Input
Amino acid sequence: MKQTKVSEWVRVITVPVAPSEEEEEDAVRGGEEGAARRWAGAQEKQIQVSELTQEINVLLAQVDIILKDAKPTVGKFQFSEFEVSAGITASGKVSLLGFGGEAGLNGGLKFVFKRT
Output
């Protein structure tokens, strides 16, 4: 059986976060031109797998701290799942995605934590 060699580097493609006014207008009209212009700003970076692994482990440790004391219920609702979206910057940093994010972040990682 042939063994596949796994690279020590992972390719990450980043695109600009904030769309221009034209891109927003195109998206509202359903046009594809805005998306094409946005992808035109895409950059490919090579990031070491070990560095990305370390960044993800730090994020997961932080989420662990946040969830340790999370209540199992909220009002009449049961808290059964917690979803976290994270982005990878061109420099390989992993950050939670939120509103008004830092330039250079775009979606890429989704973690779903379910209660056991």
